[in-house]
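In response to a reviewer's request, we include the raw inputs and outputs for one of the modeled complexes. The two entities were modeled together in a single run.
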Amino acid sequence: MSSPFVPGTSVRIEGRAGGSLDGLTFAAKDLFDVAGHPTGGGNPDWARQNPVPARHAWAVQALLDAGATLIGKTITDEVSLGILGENAFEGTPLNPAAPGHVPGGSSSGSASAVAQGLCDTALGTDTGGSVRVPASFCGLYGIRPTHGRLNLTGMLPQAPSSDTTGWFARDAQTFARVSEVLLSEAVGEGLPIRLLVATDAFGFAGPAVADALQGMLAGLRKVVPQVEEVVMAPPGLSVWGRAQRVLQPVEAWETFREWVERDNPRFAFSVAKGLVLGAMSSEADRGWAELMRREVCGRLRHLLTPGTILAMPTTPFPAPKAGLPLNALTPLRDQILCLCAQGGLAGHPQVNLPGATVEGRPVGLSILAARGADTLLVRTALALETLA
Amino acid sequence: MSSPFVPGTSVRIEGRAGGSLDGLTFAAKDLFDVAGHPTGGGNPDWARQNPVPARHAWAVQALLDAGATLIGKTITDEVSLGILGENAFEGTPLNPAAPGHVPGGSSSGSASAVAQGLCDTALGTDTGGSVRVPASFCGLYGIRPTHGRLNLTGMLPQAPSSDTTGWFARDAQTFARVSEVLLSEAVGEGLPIRLLVATDAFGFAGPAVADALQGMLAGLRKVVPQVEEVVMAPPGLSVWGRAQRVLQPVEAWETFREWVERDNPRFAFSVAKGLVLGAMSSEADRGWAELMRREVCGRLRHLLTPGTILAMPTTPFPAPKAGLPLNALTPLRDQILCLCAQGGLAGHPQVNLPGATVEGRPVGLSILAARGADTLLVRTALALETLA
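The model returned the following structure tokens for the whole complex.
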């Protein structure tokens, strides 16, 4: 297990004095531009093809302006294509909550750094689960905001119709302070009025995770007056997962194609395979996946009316062992993506709440809300922490 | 341009005194086992999964026993999957005959070391052209022997139904001495009685290469009494190429699958893509390619009767520039494979003869013979050198 920081880098930029985040420290996933430092993207051949950035990414600048101090750039899965947090070139950041197990990815180093207490918060990105999964595996608060809400200038894209900037924290108070800055909105006092429990997602995760999350669900029931059980994905979570598994690699190939076809970069086999499959995706598959995306958007819009939140397990299991063979990891990755697909497809905000474990390893409870209702989720996290 | 030798390695093993190769030096492509040294295979993740070999590969031992001294292990395209000689991890060996241009691969370092005069001969492997192409690009004698003739123990396999061990030399005398050892057969005095000129292959290469090779063809006409023009591949060289492009990646995937699915190794994108396509090849495509292979074998058996040789350009052009973008290299690679496919499909022996240039860069003339008639080709090379 290696450091969460990109090997050979050293960065420290003081935040502006007197802001709302004065005294906090943060790290940025190596997909975010930091002026004067190459954006490595977790791949040895990425940085070479871009000039060293002259400006900070929007999210980095926003945290600095609010007073937080940048203390490092963190390891990411290669160009954010990965969900487990094992980077063959830069190493696997320590998961301090489950030593010997993966941290989750692709925002692996950011989650690891916060979980280790090396900084108070850290920027990540979430296209297909890259903040939610490491938050679940490392036992952190983590948000995938409403798609399109934040300014993504200076963040390395992957699949733009799903890409978001997210962040991590160890406690709900810090999480709320950072969220107010990056969402540019105060976290109010209003709590949800209706809680939907996604029985299909709990069923998919299985009894160990469902049992582990019962205590947190009970807490939510104390905070939210009205509770209903629903099937989130009537066609099946695996059908939603399949749609995302078609669309995301197609967009990733569009994003990286020029670079790949010019530079023939080095990748771990699994990363290259994903790009090849994206390039080979058929028109018919893409057409179907776009139709399913419309259905997912419709379903979540129907379920997640103003004041409603939906609860589901963030991941179907806690962090798997580090160093497993690829053919053991592939089915695990596919299972994870079935519980994450709704984020990339429909763009609703989702927050991972820490607080449960299976066999001693963290597993998170996710809450989702209407598009734009990000602060309602943050407010719920605060209420739940106060209860605990 | 880097050294032809594998970075960080240093090998020297004296040959047995008094043998027929006494006083010669040789290098071995990093696919051949050398006792006490890891077999790197041109990939940073290959060596880790195999123990350091305790015995020399058969071909290495044969050269040592004959008196040649091993002076180094040479760079190869990753696990022999490449035809241009650009290795993203270990560098591109210098082509001294065409500086700034690729050496050809996958036996890139072996060809480079011989062409630079760093050793007298060098071992390579040829599955789909990996000796013939660098011999053509670097201006060397090079042989792909009859498939199945040499003992391949200790040579890293790729596609066993096409794999061969080959070698390079700068002059025909040295080439003949080494050939007698590795073929375990004296090079006699008998010359071919019939020369077939493959008009389709010359047409495929185009006028610049065809014109450049006319002088060498004229030399062959002086050595061989009877000359006929033939179409080597009636269905088209691109159809033969297509059959090889189906079968070779399928076998390569079978060879490397267990490693890839366990270790998720790092590859240049183009290498990973080839393996993915091999894994995805359809039963129908494979069935067709096997049928075409039968036809290629029948066609070459019909043409290459005892005493007959066939002449064709080894490559459709001299060495391309080093460092071209991948999307410029891909069509060049596909064109090269159209002139190389008969080797992997039918297993006839083929020798590259140096002696021509296009725009100052070498391009070779190939001669092929009946299976088992390897020394007839070596004898022809000697006769042609004597003429010149």
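As requested, we also summarize the result in words. Residues 25-183 of chain A form a domain with the Amidase signature (AS) enzymes fold (CATH 3.90.1300.10). Residues 237-263 of chain A form the longest helix (27 residues).
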